[in-house]
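TASK: fixed-backbone design
INPUT:
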C-alpha cells in the first residue's frame, strides 16, 4: 500500500512538472528558441559546469565537517557519494533525496540516520538564510526591477491566502490548542511512556535529530564552514552570471542581473517539483523580461542553464550511485569471507 501511495505521489508531482513546463513553453516561438540555442557558446556552459562540480565538492566537505562535533567521522568519498545520490533522487522525487542520502551514509559509514538528517535540516536552514541575504542584497542594487517582479508574485500569494484564510485560521487554532495538550499529556505520563518501546525509539530518534541540527555550535572549524558556505553560493552566482555569455541575447547583461537570476532561479529550484522543472523556467524568463531580454531568448537561457545542471546531477549522481553499490558489494563480500 505504501509503494502504491509513493507511486501516486510521484506521478502527481510528475504531472505538475509536465503541466508547468507546458505552461512555460506556451506562447514560445520554438524556431526562435532553436535559433538562439544554435548560436550558443558552449565554452561558457562548460565553465559553469566546472563551477557546479566545485560547488558540489565544497558542499560535501561542509557536510562532512558537521559530523565531527557529534563524534562521527565519515570519510570524504562516502559523504560525497551519499550527497550526490541524494541530489539524483531529488530529480525523480522532490525532497526524497534528503532522506536517501542519510540512508546511504548510514550504510557506508554507519552514521545514524537521525543524526545525519539533523545536519541536513541545519544545512537547509543555512541555505534559506543565504537565499534571503541574496534577496536583500539584490533588492538594494536592483530595487526597481525586483520590486516589480516580487510585487506581482506576492500579490497572487496574498489573493490565495485571502481565499483560504478560514482554513488557515482553523489549522492555526488546532496547532495552538493541540500543541500544549500534547506537551501536557507527555509530561503527565512520561514514566509510563518511557516503558513503551515505540516512544523510546521516537525519543532516541528526536534526540539524534536535535544533536544533528545543533552540530555547528560545537564545531571547531567554524571559519572553514563559513568559507565553504560562501564559496557554494558564489559558485551559484557565477553559474548564473557566466551563463549570460553563452547567448548573444544575454551576453550584455550585468553582474547585477546575475544576482537577480540567482535569487529568482533559487526560488524556482526550491519548488516542490522534480528539479524545479517548469517553475525555474517560468520565473527566470519572466525576470529576464525586466532586463529587456525577449521571451524566446529568456527561455533559451533557462533551458541551457537548467538542462546542463540537470544532466550534471544525473551523471555525477549516477557515478556516485554505482560507486556506492560497488563499495557495499565489496563490504558484503569481505564480511562473508571473515565469516
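OUTPUT:
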Amino acid at each position: 500500500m505504501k509503494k502504491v501511495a509513493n507511486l501516486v505521489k510521484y506521478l502527481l508531482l510528475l504531472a505538475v512538472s509536465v503541466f508547468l513546463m507546458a505552461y512555460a513553453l506556451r506562447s514560445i516561438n520554438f524556431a526562435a528558441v532553436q535559433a538562439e540555442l544554435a548560436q550558443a557558446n558552449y565554452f561558457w556552459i562548460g565553465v559553469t559546469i566546472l563551477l557546479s562540480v566545485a560547488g558540489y565538492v565544497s558542499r560535501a566537505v561542509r557536510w562532512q565537517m558537521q559530523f565531527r562535533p557529534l563524534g562521527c567521522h565519515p570519510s570524504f568519498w562516502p559523504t560525497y557519494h551519499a550527497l550526490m545520490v541524494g541530489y539524483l533522487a531529488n530529480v525523480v522525487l522532490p525532497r526524497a533525496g534528503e532522506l536517501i542520502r542519510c540512508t546511504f551514509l548510514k550504510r557506508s559509514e554507519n552514521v545514524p540516520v537521525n543524526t545525519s538528517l539533523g545536519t541536513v535540516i541545519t544545512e537547509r536552514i543555512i541555505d534559506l538564510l543565504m537565499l534571503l541575504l541574496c534577496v536583500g542584497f539584490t533588492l538594494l542594487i536592483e530595487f526597481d526591477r525586483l520590486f516589480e517582479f516580487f510585487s506581482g508574485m506576492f500579490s497572487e500569494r496574498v489573493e490565495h491566502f485571502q481565499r483560504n484564510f478560514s482554513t488557515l485560521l482553523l489549522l492555526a487554532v488546532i496547532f495552538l490548542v493541540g500543541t500544549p495538550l500534547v506537551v501536557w499529556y507527555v509530561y503527565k505520563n512520561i514514566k509510563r511512556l518511557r516503558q513503551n518501546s515505540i516512544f523510546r525509539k521516537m525519543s532516541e530518534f528526536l534526540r539524534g535529530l536535535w544533536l544533528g541540527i545543533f552540530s555547528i555550535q560545537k564545531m571547531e572549524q567554524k571559519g572553514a564552514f563559513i568559507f565553504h558556505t560562501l564559496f557554494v553560493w558564489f559558485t551559484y552566482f557565477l553559474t548564473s552570471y557566466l551563463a549570460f555569455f553563452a547567448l548573444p541575447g544575454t551576453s550584455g547583461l550585468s553582474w547585477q542581473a546575475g544576482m537577480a537570476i540567482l535569487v529568482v532561479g533559487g526560488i524556482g529550484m526550491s519548488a516542490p517539483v522534480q528539479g524545479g522543472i517548469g517553475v525555474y523556467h517560468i520565473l527566470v524568463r519572466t525576470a529576464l523580461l525586466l532586463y529587456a531580454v525577449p521571451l524566446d531568448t529568456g527561455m533559451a537561457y533557462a533551458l541551457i542553464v537548467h538542462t546542463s545542471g540537470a544532466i550534471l546531477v544525473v551523471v555525477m549522481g549516477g557515478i556516485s550511485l554505482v560507486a556506492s553499490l560497488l563499495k557495499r558489494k565489496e563490504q558484503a563480500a569481505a564480511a562473508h569471507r571473515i565469516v
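COMMENT: The chain is about 80% helix and 0% strand.
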